[in-house]
Amino acid sequence: MKPVMKKTQRRVRRKKHIRKHVTGTQKRPRLTVFRSNKNMYAQIVDDMAGTTLACASTQQEGVAGKVDSHGGNKQAAAAVGEAIAAKASEKGITEVVFDRNGYPYHGRVKELAEAARKGGLKF
């Protein structure tokens, strides 16, 4: 009998299937999300050039001040979403492709996406 896959292994497997279809271009880069137990991270990536255009996390100075206690909650995710949208608008990026990175679109990931939409990103 096969051994049971661990939670992170299942996420990585889903991530590979998603990345077959989701790629960032210069006109429409990819907004990717990573969440850990303590922090949230977001990057806007141009996959064709292989460069990161903008990034935000709960550990950055501007975002860490908005978060009360710890960066692993919905409030912190919303702050990261606002920060990534602000950085994207500074660079002239208005449309992105959302890459949830294998995580379910629920909770912190959904909060980050909604805050980025409120900040002016379209996806």
* Tally of contiguous helical segments: 4
CATH architecture annotation name: 2-Layer Sandwich
CATH topology: Nucleotidyltransferase, domain 5
Q: What are the low-pLDDT stretches, counting only 5+ consecutive residues below 50?
A: none
Give the class from helix and strand content and strand pairing. alpha+beta
Q: Which bin fits the share of residues in helices?
A: 25-40%
Oligomer: single chain
Strand order of the largest sheet: 3-2-1-4
CATH class: Alpha Beta
Proportion of beta-strand residues: 15-25%
Outline the secondary-structure elements.
Elements: H1 7-19, E1 30-35, E2 40-46, E3 51-57, H2 61-64, H3 74-90, E4 97-99, H4 108-118
Parallel strand pairs: 1-4
Antiparallel strand pairs: 1-2, 2-3
3D architecture notes:
This protein has 123 residues and is an alpha+beta fold. It has a single domain (7-118), classed as 2-Layer Sandwich (Nucleotidyltransferase, domain 5). It contains four helices and four strands; from the N terminus they run αβββααβα. It has helices spanning 7-19, 61-64, 74-90, 108-118; strands at 30-35, 40-46, 51-57, 97-99. A four-stranded mixed sheet has the order 3-2-1-4. It is globular.
Brief digest:
This protein is of the alpha+beta class and 123 residues long. The chain has one domain: Nucleotidyltransferase, domain 5 (2-Layer Sandwich). It has helices spanning 7-19, 61-64, 74-90, 108-118; strands at 30-35, 40-46, 51-57, 97-99.
